[in-house]
């Protein structure tokens, strides 16, 4: 008997791209996929169960083994070291991490501050640049920080660049490109190897 595979999907901006990729790989997603209130969705015929999680939490579900697989942005993987395997670059939801701030401004000499949803990434980036900065962790609307004087720089995701533009901010440095990855729980990867390989192959064929 085929065992059920549980996949943690990120709610929000990656969800649509991930669902499109699954459809392209001929998974018959149920109509509930378009109604994002339901948090657990199943495709009976494929023996697949999807759990809909906050993007930052996907790797947590996978690491704890309650999801065998997950779709997580490289940004999330870089921010938190997790005991999971990265199986595939799905090449969806491309964006990049960048340092931004108000135009023609410098980091303060006295107490430079950087706001970010990615404190670890931001901290290593500035350390490598030889800059000692205080990192201020925010959970969203990061672009507010320089506008109201909380920080001189932000480290955040840039996709279209529209949010920076509309808030009068400019990019100072690009840190790295980001796409979404298929990740796996190491134990599931051994015990459900055949099913996982089958799914990886179906996805890889349409990337
Ligand atoms: C992300 C990111 C930027 C914005 C970038 O925020 O933090 O604010 O998208 O996209 P753009 O370059 O296309 O404008 P998100 O919408 O995920 O919400 P958040 O503010 O809660 O992080």
TrEMBL record:
Catalysed reactions, as listed in the record: 1-(5-phospho-beta-D-ribosyl)-ATP + diphosphate = 5-phospho-alpha-D-ribose 1-diphosphate + ATP
Annotated GO MF terms: ATP binding; ATP phosphoribosyltransferase activity
Involved pathway(s): Amino-acid biosynthesis; L-histidine biosynthesis; L-histidine from 5-phospho-alpha-D-ribose 1-diphosphate: step 1/9
Domain ATP phosphoribosyltransferase catalytic positions: 54-204
Primary location: cytoplasm
One Pfam family, short name: HisG
Function: Catalyzes the condensation of ATP and 5-phosphoribose 1-diphosphate to form N'-(5'-phosphoribosyl)-ATP (PR-ATP). Has a crucial role in the pathway because the rate of histidine biosynthesis seems to be controlled primarily by regulation of HisG enzymatic activity.
Family, similarity comment: Belongs to the ATP phosphoribosyltransferase family. Short subfamily.
Name of this chain's protein: ATP phosphoribosyltransferase
Name of encoding gene: hisG
């Amino acid at each position: 008997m085929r065992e059920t595979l549980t996949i943690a999907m990120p709610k929000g901006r990656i969800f649509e791209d991930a669902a499109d990729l699954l459809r392209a790989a001929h998974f018959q997603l149920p109509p509930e996929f378009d109604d994002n209130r339901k948090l657990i969705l199943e495709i009976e015929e494929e023996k697949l169960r999807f759990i809909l999680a906050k993007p930052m939490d996907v790797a947590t579900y996978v690491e704890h083994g309650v999801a065998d697989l997950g779709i997580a942005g490289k940004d999330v993987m870089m921010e938190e070291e997790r005991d999971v395997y990265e199986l595939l670059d799905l090449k969806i939801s491309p964006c990049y991490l960048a340092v931004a701030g108000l135009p023609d401004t410098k980091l303060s000499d006295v107490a430079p501050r950087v706001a970010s949803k990615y404190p670890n990434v931001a901290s290593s980036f500035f350390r490598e640049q030889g800059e000692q900065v205080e990192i201020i962790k925010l959970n969203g609307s990061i672009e507010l920080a320089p506008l109201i004087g909380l920080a001189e720089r932000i480290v955040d995701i840039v996709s279209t660049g529209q949010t920076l533009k509309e808030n009068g901010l400019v990019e100072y440095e690009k840190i790295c490109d980001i796409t979404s990855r298929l990740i796996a729980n190491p134990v599931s990867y051994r015990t459900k190897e055949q099913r996982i390989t089958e799914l990886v192959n179906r996805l890889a064929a349409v990337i």
